[in-house]
Amino acid sequence: MVDAANQIVYLNGNYSALQDTKISVLDRGFLFGDGIYEVIPVYNGHIFHFNRHFTRLENNLRTIQLPLPFDAQQLKDIIKQLLGGEKQESVYVQITRGVARRDHGFPESVNPTVFVMASTVIQGQKHGIACITLEDDRWQHCDIKTIALLPNVLLRQQAHNQNADEAILIRNGFVTEGAASNVFIVIDKQIITTPKSQYILPGVTRDILIELAENSGLQVLQRQFTEQELMNASEIWITSSTKEIVPVIRINDQPVSNGTSGVVWQQINTLFQTHKQTLIQQEND
Predict the structure, then answer these.
(1) CA distances from 228 to 20, 133, 241, 265 (A)
(2) Could you tell me if 256 and 244 are in contact, meaning their C-beta atoms sit under 8 angstroms apart?
(3) Given this structure, which CATH class describes domain 129-277?
(4) 8-120 CATH
(5) DSSP assignment of 124-192, as one string?
(6) 189 in active site
(7) Is it the case that residue 281 has pLDDT exceeding 90?
(8) How far apart, in whole angstroms, are the C-alpha atoms of residue 182 and residue 236?
(9) Residue 156 backbone dihedrals phi, psi, to 5 degrees
(10) Is 0.85 surpassed by the pTM of this model?
(11) CATH code 3.20.10.10 region(s) in the chain
(12) Would you place residue 115 in the very low, low, confident or very high pLDDT band (cuts 50, 70, 90)?
C-alpha cells in the first residue's frame, strides 16, 4: 500500500507527490462545488469497464456544459501512470470548471481543472452491513455525479451516528438509492431495483449486475418499491464501484431475514467475481 507521502497524483498535466499538489483557492470546485467526478475500480492493473465509466463521465460533463478536456485514451494513459500494482485500486477523477473570479455565472475562456489519483481499496464488508432508512431530501438531479456531495455526506453521517454503515433513502414513500450506493432487494426470488431516473445515480456496477443476472436466467425487475417492501424483503444489497455488491443484514436495527447474506446474493456475487476474473484474463492473454 502506497502511503500519502509517496503517492503520486495528476493535476493539470503534471505528476507530483500528493502532499505537494495544490489548487487555487479560486477554483470553482472549491468555491461552488462546480464539477464532476468519476470513480473507476482497477483489479490487478486492469481498469474495470473503463469505457462505461468514461461514457458516464462524458455524459455528466455535457449535462453541466463543461467541455471534456481529454479523450478516452488520454485519460487511460494518465490512470496507468498512477497505478501502484495493488490487487484492488480505485481511481478518482475530478474535473471542475477551473479558476476564475468568484461569480455564479460560467466564466469565459477558462481551462478546466483536472485531478486524478489512485488509492488502494481494502474489501472488508462482504459479511454484511447495517443500514437505516432516511428521508431523501437531496435535490432534483441526483443522476448527476457532481462533486457537491454535502447532502450525501450528511445522510451518511446520520447513518454512522446510529451505528449503521449506510443510509437507504426514501422519497415519497419509495426507495431511491443509498447515500453512496444503489439498492437491490429480493422478494420471492425476484431481484428488484429502482429504475433509472433523475433521483438515482446510474451506477456502473448496478448495470453490470443486472446484465449478469439476466444473462444467467435470474429475473430482474426495474420498478419502484416501497419502504415496506424494503423492510419485508428476504435480501437487501447495496452496490458501488468500490464496494461491489454488499449484503445488508440489518435494517433499522432489525435483521434482514436470518441476518446473513442470502442465497441470491451468493449467486450474484459469484457471477460478478467470475466476470472480473474473465476480463482480467482476457486482457492478459
Answers:
(1) 50, 11, 27, 20
(2) no
(3) alpha beta
(4) 3.30.470.10
(5) --TT-EEEEEEE----S-TTS-BS--HHHHHHHHHHHHTT-SEEEEEETTEEEEETTBEEEEEETTEEE
(6) no
(7) no
(8) 11
(9) -60, -40
(10) yes
(11) 129-277
(12) very high
Q: Taking a C-beta distance cutoff of 8 angstroms, is the pair 241, 41 a contact? A: yes
- pLDDT of residue 123 exceeding 90, the answer is no
Give the span between the Cα atoms of 167 and 186, in whole angstroms.
18
Query: Residue 184 burial by CB count (10 A; 0-12/13-18/19+): exposed, middle or buried?
Result: buried
Distance CA 258, CA 238 (A): 18
Cβ proximity of 138 and 170 under 8 Å: no
Interval 52-105: pLDDT, tens: 999 999 999 999 999 999 999 999 999 999 998 888 999 999 999 999 999 999
> In the chain, which residues fall in CATH 3.30.470.10?
8-120
pLDDT score recorded for residue 3:
63
Residue for grid cell 459479511 = 127
Q: Which of 145, 189, 196, 243 is catalytic?
A: 145
- Euclidean distance between CA atoms 43 and 185, whole angstroms: 27
